[in-house]
Fold this protein.
Amino acid sequence: MIEKIVAAGFLIGLIIRDGFGFALVEQPIFLFGSFLALVYLVANWWIIRPNTVSARTIVVTILYGVTSSCFTFALIFKLFYYEGSDQMIILGWMLLILSLTVDFISAFNKKRVINQWLTLRLSILLLSATAFFYIPEESRVRFTYRNYPEFLQYYEMNKDSFAAFDLREKYFADQLK
């Protein structure tokens, strides 16, 4: 239940920021997203609820939790233009392949840990993070900050010198003084 509430908060924050163009409403997205990633990291066992308790189900559940957390943090990093987001998405793909391999190989004559809800969650995270991986940063900056033409001009003048995150921090810190 907590996963759905926190994910809804993350999605609502994202809709407010990118859908309505309120680019400075970033704290709820960051807080809800980080909390969601931490929930996946430490509480995935209670979310998945495997039918049997064994070393195999514990390890595979932890692997799926780390994978979900990695994709969630990769998505947060992509949304905020942090460095390393592309590497996190690639790491998430590698963890997903590892998790699925361990689950399928270790489940010989046993029930797999992966279930419908986990498949849906991983699909949403995977597709979202991968979609943002392929959308050019410049297009995302233009869309996110479309209501801030002065920032877009500042971005255009300085995009070759600094990362988008650094430009955003410097510009809006100067504006809010």
About this structure: The mean pLDDT is 89. The radius of gyration is 19 Å.
